[in-house]
Amino acid sequence: MTGFDADMYRRLVESSPEGVVLIDALNPERPVVYANRGFEALTGYTADELLGRNLRFLQGEDREQDARHRLREALAKGESCRVLLRNYRKDGTLFWNEMNVMPLPDADGRVTHFAGHHRDAGERLRIDPKMTRDSLSGAHQPTAVAIRDDRLTGLFSLPYLEELLKRDWSVAQREKRSIAVFAIDIDALDLYNATFGRAAGDSTIRRVAHVVSGCLRRASDVTARIDGGSLIAFAPGLTNEQAMRVGQIMAERVRDLRIHHPRSAILRYISVSVGVCASVPEAAENPASLLEKAQKQLMIAKKSGRNQAA
């Protein structure tokens, strides 16, 4: 290809709406050496504030994420990977960072840098707004299979849950009815995977997902898997007190599975932390604010010792 120089490449990357960063692979700290405007817009940080730092700081204190373990493994091996991480913008707001990382080797095959492509996962896999909950009836089973894009657990995808939550949010707002959101994380899943392997970890995620979704049995209740051992659910009509009880039951039933976890500092079995938030939607609020509040409650549950609802 002629007439396409390095300056054009730089302008192409700089103008990309997707966040793009370049990481120094030879430095053990793996600092950022370049960040485009798309990444600045995604995180709220300027390039000057990002340069020289490891992007783990975007996780804040929310370090217990299975995706971090997968990312570390890929970087250590110099391999490509795709992960979904809870990250926090400069203003403290939560977003799900869908990250694609690729190694960049030199002429001798030595990986000198990693290129990271980042975007807000809320923008992916958007569902047709004409789709209704009726589409999930037995008469429309082929559609249901397509919607339930989480092959590991059979639960809904996060984008589809968000679409359903928007509809139920409007109804709850009109009827002055409460709606509850649950953010669930499997505790120390990264250590479990490191001990027993990915296949065993996936089996545990499936079992936990089945138990958690079983705690919400009404047709209006919805459960989705975000990534790894992270789940989200919502239930219309529950007060905060009722929702807290459901969150406690989730934690109890996962404990009752008695899945052995010798490296857990909490129990010797798999456990979950649950963030619970229930409220009557106000005009100034939106569904995303309720999801964020549930995630903040999840952080409180973790800081309080995990294996509980907060």
Relevant terms:
alpha+beta, Beta-Lactamase, 9 strands, 310 residues, 38% helix, five-stranded antiparallel β-sheet
Summarize the structure.
With 310 residues, the protein is an alpha+beta fold.
User: H/E element string?
Assistant: HEEHHHEEEHHEHHEEHEH
So, the CATH homologous superfamily of the largest domain? Reverse transcriptase/Diguanylate cyclase domain
**Would you state the CATH class of the largest domain?**
Alpha Beta
Number of domains: 2
Spatial order of the strands forming the largest sheet: 2-1-5-4-3
Low-confidence stretches: 125-147
- How much of the polypeptide forms β-strand, as a percent range? 15-25%
Q: How many strands, what sense, and barrel or not for the largest sheet?
A: 5 strands, antiparallel
Q: Could you tell me the number of beta strands?
A: 9
| Shape estimate | globular
Please give the CATH architecture of the largest domain: 2-Layer Sandwich
Helix/strand class: alpha+beta
- Radius of gyration over alpha carbons? 21 Å
Instruction: Report mean pLDDT, rounded to a whole number.
Output: 85
Helix content: 25-40%
Helical element count? 10
What is the fold named in CATH at topology level of the largest domain? Answer: Alpha-Beta Plaits
Q: Distance N terminus to C terminus? A: 58 Å
Report on this structure:
The chain is of the alpha+beta class and 310 residues long. The chain folds into 2 domains: 6-123, 2-Layer Sandwich (Beta-Lactamase); 140-303, Alpha-Beta Plaits. 38% of the residues lie in helices and 22% in strands. It has helices spanning 6-14, 37-43, 47-50, 66-77, 141-147, 158-175, 189-196, 198-214, 240-257, 287-303, and strands at residues 19-24, 32-35, 81-88, 94-105, 111-120, 179-186, 222-227, 230-236, 272-279. The strands form 2 sheets. The chain has a 5-stranded antiparallel β-sheet. A 4-stranded antiparallel β-sheet has the order 7-8-6-9, with helices on both faces. The chain is globular and about 60 Å long.
